[in-house]
Amino acid sequence: QDNGFEQFIINYCNEKLQQIFILMTLKGEQEEYVREGIQWTPVEFFDNSIICDLIENSKGGILAMLDEECLRPGVVTEDTFLAKLNQLFAAHKHYESRETQNARRVTDPSLPPRCFRIRHYAGKVTYDVTGFIEKNNDLLFRDLSQAMWAARHALLRSLFPEGDPQRVSLKLPPTTGSQFKASVATLMKNLYSKNPNYIRCIKPNESKAATLFTPELVLAQIRYLGLLENVRVRRAGYAFRQPYGPFLQRYRMLSARTWPRWDGGHREGTEVLLAELGIPPEELAFGHTKIFIRSPRTLFDLEKRRQERVAELVTLIQKMFRGWRCRTQYQLMRKSQIIISAWFRGHA
């Protein structure tokens, strides 16, 4: 409920991760469509770069304004920092405070004084500026670093290389916000060079109890993890894609032409199967190696037909097995009866 400087930089990192998450998802979608020869349809999505720029812009971002206040001579308080933010972002649609709301003649009792609010991609978060300047200043003074470097312990010397007298710099030490910003930039550069796979863990309830599902808690996690954006991106293109071989193997039972045996290629079999099922052409796209289905409803219909067909086949197998078992039992009984009758007549 109470968000300070620590939560602010954590949420800034979350914004950057969300940005790369969406861009990587879009990039992966586009590359797969190009690879499969499918026409790419531009996808509309919320680009949170405006929020990232609000925080990290080197000339007029919140972190830059915070560093400027920390380095400014004279009496510096969080009130001057907040006043500067209010003046700079008065018209910004993702920033608001008590002063900017008053200027817009908006009354919001939920926004207390000495606070500002950012409309993050997942929702609004209110930050209390108390302690921002003190926590942003690097309090590890130069003389302390020199004292640690002068220690005889090798580990201490390695932890404070800036204390080496030969490396003494008259520059002010970097602020916490600038160090965190540089660290996030390094992380983003590393992630952009990789091919990431995302695993999202969702907590179903707060009490860690089995078989208990709290919809409100799960919905909040889905929203803040950015899964809605991911689903929106996937739904804007083709929601389902699968190689022709596994697809034909799973659904070939739905057509008399592909069941029980299909001797042609996987793609030809898939085209024959879907044409016989009467699926609209606009719902399908045939790539070089995969079949693409646009709407989940079409896939659900295929699964429903498959379940019904599986039930029919199971009934057929059961019928044939029961008939074979009864016929075999009848033949054994008839053979036994003939043998018994023959021996009885011979005895008589």
UniProtKB/TrEMBL annotation:
Residues 1-307 form the Myosin motor domain. It comes from the Eukaryota. GO terms for cellular component: brush border; cytoplasm; microvillus; myosin complex; plasma membrane. One of its GO terms (biological process) is sensory perception of sound. One of its GO terms (molecular function) is actin filament binding. The keyword Cytoplasm does not apply. Residues 184-206 are annotated as: Actin-binding. Belongs to the TRAFAC class myosin-kinesin ATPase superfamily. Myosin family. This is Unconventional myosin-Ia. It comes from Syrrhaptes paradoxus.
